[in-house]
Amino acid sequence: MTENRRTQLDAITLMLALILLLILEYTAGFLPADWPGLLKISLLRLVQCSVLLGLLYFRKHPPLSAGLSLKNLEKGIKTGILGCFFMGVAALSAGLALHFYGINPLPLIHVHLPDSTTNLILFFIAGGLIAPVAEELFFRGFIFSYLKKYGFIPALLISTSAFAILHSPPQPTQWIGGLVFGLAYGLSGSLAAPVIIHACGNLVLFSLSWMTAQPFFHALIYP
Predict the structure, then answer these.
(1) For site-directed labelling of 19, which of 4, 25, 45, 50 has its Cα 20 to 30 A away?
(2) What band does 128 get if pLDDT is binned at 50, 70 and 90?
(3) Mind listing the pLDDT tens digit for each residue in 49-79?
């Protein structure tokens, strides 16, 4: 019984995680003002990951409790790759349907990117690699994992709502993404699945936004 409780996150651990993340967000405001914003965000998310992993250790929860077990890693990777494929097919189908009705889908998914090359690289690293890991660790690894004892659907809906609402202002893509990430995590039991889908989705959105801003591609898309 004690071992079973260890493998399930408890309310105290979840509350501590939330409090620690709020403290980190507050203290990030004291970082030097002349540091690039994207650098500060990257550092904050890396520290966030370290703090959450440290909390698991401190509370004596095994990696399995947050979807970090090597046991489910292979299944998580396969689920993540399949999820990327199906998300790509769904997005392409939706885009073609909109195009058929005379609506250009690209402005609907456009992401504003930095102008300088350095900031652009930082943006891809922070938003495409670091943020998906940090966000999935908290929203799926902690929130979903704690709530799943109340049922798969409540865990999916509440973790998705928290994910979308905290992305201010919430967009349809975040609600859809949150549902997909939660489904991938729930089906695989591994955080690798939502991290792969999340990172792939972000990188594709950023890449499309960058490509459509280039004169050559812009002329093709907006003749």
Answers:
(1) 4
(2) very high
(3) 999 999 999 999 999 999 999 999 999 999 9
Kindly list the domain boundaries of the chain, sorted by start residue: 67-221
Cis check for the bond before 223: say yes or no (omega within 30 of 0): no
Q: What is the distance between the alpha carbons of residues 193 and 183, in angstroms, rounded to a whole number? A: 9
Tokens 């972000």 map to which residue? Answer: 202
Please state, in angstroms and rounded to a whole number, the distance separating the CA atoms of residues 196 and 60.
Answer: 27
